[in-house]
TrEMBL record:
GO biological process, one term: methylation
Gene Ontology MF annotations: methyltransferase activity
Organism ancestry: Bacteria, Bacillati, Bacillota, Bacilli, Bacillales
Keyword Cell membrane: no
Keywords, in A-Z order: Methyltransferase, Transferase
Species assigned in the record: Fictibacillus phosphorivorans
Recorded superkingdom: Bacteria
InterPro entries, sorted: EgtD, EgtD_Methyltrsf_superfamily, MeTrfase_dom, MeTrfase_EgtD-like, SAM-dependent_MTases_sf
Annotated coiled-coil segments of the chain: none
Sequence ranges assigned to domain Histidine-specific methyltransferase SAM-dependent in this UniProt record: 21-318
The protein, known as: Dimethylhistidine N-methyltransferase
Amino acid sequence: MKTIKSNVHYHVGNEPETDMYSEVLNGLRSEHKTISPKYFYDKKGSELFEAITMLAEYYPTRTELFILNKYRDEMASAIGTDTALVEFGSGSSEKVRTLLEAMPDLKEYVPIDISKDFLYQSARALSIEYPHLHVHAVSADYTEKFELPKLTSSRKAVFFPGSTIGNFEPHERVNFLKMTADFLKPNGGLLIGVDMKKDHAVLNAAYNDSKGITSQFNTNLLNRLNRELLADFNLEHFHHHAFYHAEKGRIEMHLVSLKNQTITIGSEHVTFAEGETIQTENSYKFTIEEFQDIARDCGFTPKKVWVDEKNWFSMHYLMV
Ligand code: AVJ
């Protein structure tokens, strides 16, 4: 009986440094109340985000997949051979399968995600589907320094889809891209999804869908705080508010307090004035040139860019 040799390996790249309770309280205690968008993704939040990706108004996911499918051969040849493909925030590893179909000679895929159980489950499934691929699942927060397992490929390419780069604040974005450029030296590449500036009505509709799923996604954050931080938010007293801030070039998502109220969180209290908001997410949008200039300033050389026919979304390939 042939023994099956495992082609999936599991590693811990780093341990999340911050604690949710102190991070959330500090954010709610700042002059302009904020909560990090990473806390959207509890089980319900992840399910709601999956539903968002299928909404008619929410164009980014389907547009990025269209571009990936249409240009995957060009992307694969740009990435090249003898390269380990590293994915930041790999999740279900659904999107990367489009690329893998165009990269039959790829030897190593390194999915990195902070949700260890889901990462390991997705990595195992992919390793069964692609028995000739070495899958190194790395549980880590990729925005912090992390350890990689020993790889045999001579270079690395990072796959960073979804326009998650748009969630970073400008200084965070620069730090992240500079860290990624160092990570990719020498001679590595970055294939990154970037949502583009466009008609404000299209942007506003994508974050204020007619079914109210994005509103549920935003307010679900308060459910998570109630459950995990022993808070007593009443969701009836907070309202989803999302709008495109043209001057800053970003969609802002807020939860607006509909009255003067005091919330208990664990052993602490936070007061809200009527109309005061918690800023829960920024999604920055870029022109091709804006993003290429940012990338150059962080040590990258733009090589290729692929867009859809409406110029709504872009995939950039950059090298160090
Ligand atoms: C997954 C962060 C790219 O910013 O468009 C979707 C999250 N927020 N609808 C985005 C999101 C509201 C999405 N990212």
